[in-house]
Amino acid sequence: MQRTLDQGLVEIHISFVKSIATISDLQSEGSTLVREAEASGLVPISRNGRTVVFLISRAKLGAILETMELQKNDELMALVKRDKAGQVKFSEVPDAI
Asked: Is the pLDDT of residue 13 over 70?
């Protein structure tokens, strides 16, 4: 399940994971949890019932870093804001160039 919270120009995606691993799980099933993180994007790890760290896949981290880099572009963020306000007009791209 995934939900999106709209916070102005930034959309925050919250992914709900099926389970949270514990530090003990990480110690005993490290390889399995790494494979799970590769497949799902991230695995939360808890200590005493509180999530304290995440195993995050290379792909998920790459996407986060790319998003952060794009958000530093003021022109792009202004375009996104205008698009969300319905002020951007797109033209059709021809099938053959």
From this structure: no
